[in-house]
Amino acid sequence: MIFEAKTTGSKTTEAKTTEAKATGPQTMQVPPSPVRRARLGIATLAGCLFLAGCSSPSPTTFDLSAPSGFGRVGGSRAVMVVAQPTTVQALDSDRVIVKDSSGALSFVGGAQWADRIPALVQARLIQTFENASRIGSVSGPGQRISPDVQLNTDIRSFNIDAASGAAVVEMTAKVVGDRTGQIQRARLFSARVPASSVDGPGAAQALDRALSQVLIEIVRWAR
Q: Which of 98, 116, 118, 94 has the alpha carbon at shortest distance from 108?
C-alpha cells in the first residue's frame, strides 16, 4: 500500500509538470502599428540625412607666409619676445572673414586658415624677424630666455572689405622694456590689397599679401 501511494504521487507530479510545460507562455508575432511604422520611417530618413551631411566636403585650408628677401635692414642685438597678438573675439578664429559696409561679419564658405588668426600671425611675425636677421634673438613666450624687450601687437582688422573688394590688415605694435615695463615705441600699421575674387583662394591670397606688407613694416620699425 505504501509503494502504491508513492507511485501514484510520482505519476501525479509528472502529470502536473507536463501540463505546466504545455500551458507555458508562448511568443506571438504582432505586426507593428501604423504609428510605429511611421516613426521607424522618420528615424531611417533622419539617419540617411545625417550620413549625407557627414559626407560633405571639408573646407580648403590656407596658410599665411613669412616674407623674406626684402633687403638688408639694420638692427640691434637685443633679445626680443613676440607675444601672441590680442584681438576681438570675432577675429580669434580660423575663418576667412568678410566685412560689409554696415560692419556685419560673414565667412567665406569652404575656406579656413591653418590655425587661429592670432596664433598664425604670431608665428609668421617671428619668422619674418628671423628672415631679416633684424634682432639678435627672437622667440615666443615660454622659451626660457631672458628678453630685453617684448613686442605686443593687436589685430584690429583682418578681413575682406566687401564694399571695395580689398583685403584689409591693421595691427598696432608696442615695444615694451621687459625689465621696466615701459612702452618704448608704439605705432599703427595697415595695408590694403585688392582681392581678385571674394572666394577662398582670392581672399586668402589678398590677405596674405596685405599681412606681408604689415610684417615687413613692423620688422623694419622695431628695434
A: 98
| 117-132 vs 200-221: helix crossing angle, rounded to 10 | 50
In a domain, 142, yes or no: yes
How is the chain split among helix, strand and coil, in percent rounded to 5? Answer: 35, 30, 35
Q: What is the pLDDT of residue 160?
A: 98
In a domain, 215, yes or no: yes
Cell of residue 86, nine digits = 590680442
Beta-strand pair 95-99/149-161: parallel
Q: Are 190 and 161 in contact (CB under 8 A)?
A: no
Nearest-CA neighbor of 140 among 128, 122, 166?
A: 122
Local structure of residue 198 (DSSP, 8 states): S
List per-block mean pLDDT (blocks of 10 residues) for the chain, which spans 223 residues.
Answer: 42 43 49 54 48 67 92 72 96 97 95 98 95 81 85 98 97 92 94 96 98 96 82
Is residue 85 included in any domain, yes or no?
yes
